[in-house]
């Protein structure tokens, strides 16, 4: 059995091991396990049953991870995406007054369109058409984004009325827990200790439990909440999508998930060294995996599923094959029954991992042609746009809008592909729809 696993996932060819892949899968899971608790809270604001959303989140994540691992053989995990779940609850349901059942139907319709454009390889064509420099910028931008996320979640960076953001207060124990984890993880990585990120997370958890900054759970095992309140509800409300406003909602679900996932896939592929001649091998299978997970997630009862930037933590540990993603998927299933234990993995535990992974992903920035301003300007806007707008897709939009403009100004317009020109207009419309009140 072990030999078949090694052969199928090309463990030896990728210069890795089964042990390392499993450790990487566990690290990825620990880094993104928070979604099991965050997603029910966010979607619960729309009126959805939080217990059902918890189960739906675990099942959709598990399915997406396992499909990604088996079909595409990439160490990339999937789960309901942050940001789009907030759009689902706060913009669509609370802001527009759309019932959550109808919004869920919108996710279902968007996922069907997703599958169609994946089958016809339109998504693959778009990803291949993105210039190499912009792909490097996307990878580095995601690195800055998740590092900023880690600094924020760890309490090191906080909001500030005078300066927008500022250094957080240092008289809070949990902030020092994050700092401890960051110092330990940094030392381990500098010393090139295998599994340094995971060891850092474990050390931070132990210190948190010993000092009381992290509460010991009352019990270890609990039954999975019922899926009944949300299961197949989307199918019953497809007919409710009967206005221009609701079709705009469907289009927004489609566009945001498309470019969030595309950007994340490209960034992670760059980090892992999978890109060949500016193309991502087996990208069609990767896109098919996340499209199927998005469809299944809408039927289970959750917002759109997409590739997760936290997969970079597993890649940083050494994960290179689909076995990493399969391991993460199986742990999501196990997580259904060990939800009290998962509560010890607080944001202070995962924050140091996100910060140092951001450093690793930023290394791709050295390959951008910074001396060519027509390349540097759109690349910089992608890089800076992601953390400052708190959105991968918004950062991509800024860069993709400026890229044709700067290339034409440099008299290099013929080098821009027709697809990039088309995306220029798509993103202008996208930004208008999302941001004009």
TrEMBL record:
Protein name per UniProt: Guanine permease
Transmembrane stretches, start-end: 21-39, 51-72, 79-97, 103-122, 134-158, 170-190, 197-216, 244-266, 287-309, 321-342, 380-404, 416-434
InterPro entries with a match to the protein in the record: Azg-like, Azg-like_bact_archaea, NCS2
Family per record: Belongs to the nucleobase:cation symporter-2 (NCS2) (TC 2.A.40) family. Azg-like subfamily.
Lineage: Bacteria, Bacillati, Bacillota, Bacilli, Lactobacillales
Membrane topology annotation: Multi-pass membrane protein
One family name in Pfam for this protein: Xan_ur_permease
Superkingdom to which the source organism belongs: Bacteria
Keyword annotations from UniProtKB, A to Z: Cell membrane, Membrane, Transmembrane, Transmembrane helix, Transport
